[in-house]
Amino acid sequence: MRVVIQRVSRARVSAGGEMIGEIGAGALILAGVRTDDTEDDARYLAGRIAELRIFPDADRHFERSVKETGGALLVVSQFTLYADTRRGRRPSFTEAAPPAEAERLYETLMTELRAHGLEVRAGRFGAVMDVELVNAGPVTIILDSADRLRARRGG
Known about the structure:
The chain is an alpha/beta fold. The chain is built from four helices and eight strands, in the order βββαββαβαββα.
C-alpha cells in the first residue's frame, strides 16, 4: 500500500460538483492499494501516518505529529499511485488492486486512522474527483508499506 501525505492548511474534495470532504489544517492522504496488500499494510501505514512528525514546533523543526497537533486527515483513494510507465506512452495499472479489494483496504486504512483518535474525512471511492489543497510548507512525504520489509532486511 502506498500513500502520499501532503501537509495542508486546508483541503477539500468534490465529485460531480458536490463537496464530499473538507478539512482545515492537517494532511491530505492519497492512498493506493497494490494487488498483494493486506490489512496489515493498512494498519502499518495508519500507525506511521498517525505518528509521523511532519508538523513544526515553535522552532520550526519537524517535531509534532498530526495526532499531537489535533489536525484532521482527508483520505482520497488514488489507484494511479501504482502506475507503471516503463513501456509505451500509456500507463499500466496491473499492480493496482481490483476495485473491490482496494475499496476494502481503503476503508480499513480509514478505520485504523480513526482508531488512533484522528479526525478523518474521505473522498468517494472510485469517483472522478476534484481535489483542492493548500500544501503547507510545502511538505510532501511518500510512504509505502513494502518499505517496512526492506527495513527489516537492512536494505
